[in-house]
Structure formats: structure tokens, C-alpha cells
Design goal:
6-stranded mixed beta sheet; single chain; globular; Nuclear Transport Factor 2, Chain: A; alpha+beta; about 130 residues
Length: about 130
């Protein structure tokens, strides 16, 4: 028996990857923070290093994640994701998408029993778009 419904995971992943299409706003993201991440979410990404000068690349908690995404929106007001694929695992999902810059990104999301992200690791392609 599988741990998570593949259809549900795919729908959630597709929604997340396309959330910015048509003009993102932080009210929309408030729902994402509350519903899709645990309060103690652990987020790692190269963008944490560049945006916050944090050498370890780690943010902890919904508030830090919200500030990080807000800064991302400020830096890229035309942010857009194209969903490439969703990979299923036993404890989560990997969402592969392309940013408006052409950069290929993989978000590895470890989920709890309520489908909320407990850890997210973002990886960016090194090949120029």
C-alpha cells in the first residue's frame, strides 16, 4: 500500500508550480504557508545564501519562508514556473520546474502524514538555459 495518493500529490505539486501564473500576491501565499508547510518547516536553497547572506543556506519556520518568498517576488515580479515533472517517493515528492529565467529547478519536499512539507530542498541547474 502506498503512503500517499499519487493523484493528490500531483495535483498539489502542479498547483504549487503554477501558483505564480497570472499575477502572484502574498494573500494567495498565506494559504500555502498555512496549508502546505508545518510551522517548523526547514527550507534549504542557494537563494537563501544569495538573498540573506546565510552561508548554510537554511531557513527555519513559516515566517522566514514567507520573507524569503516575498523577497523573491520583489526581485522577480514576473516570476513564472513551468511544471516539468513530479517524482514520487516514499516520504515525499520532487517537483521539477523551469523558472521564467530558463533555470531548471528541483524542489524536494519531505511530507508528514498530513501532506504538509516538513523539509524542502531546492536545487538549481548549473547548465545555462
Amino acid at each position: 500500500m502506498e503512503r500517499f495518493s499519487q493523484e493528490f500529490l500531483y495535483q498539489c505539486s502542479h498547483w504549487r508550480a503554477s501558483a505564480y501564473v497570472g499575477g502572484p500576491n502574498l494573500l494567495t501565499w498565506e494559504d500555502i504557508y498555512q496549508e502546505h508547510y508545518v510551522p517548523s518547516i526547514r527550507f534549504t536553497a542557494p537563494t537563501v545564501i544569495s538573498r540573506w547572506n546565510k552561508p548554510d543556506g537554511i531557513l527555519i519556520g513559516r515566517d522566514e519562508l514567507r520573507r524569503h518568498f516575498k523577497r523573491g517576488l520583489d526581485l522577480a515580479p514576473h516570476l513564472h514556473f513551468e511544471l516539468i515533472d513530479v517524482l514520487m517517493g516514499v516520504d515525499g515528492v520532487t517537483i521539477i520546474y523551469r523558472r521564467e529565467t530558463g533555470a531548471l529547478v528541483a524542489d524536494i519536499v519531505v511530507l508528514d502524514e498530513n501532506y504538509q512539507g516538513v523539509e524542502v530542498h531546492a536545487y538549481y541547474g548549473v547548465t545555462p538555459p
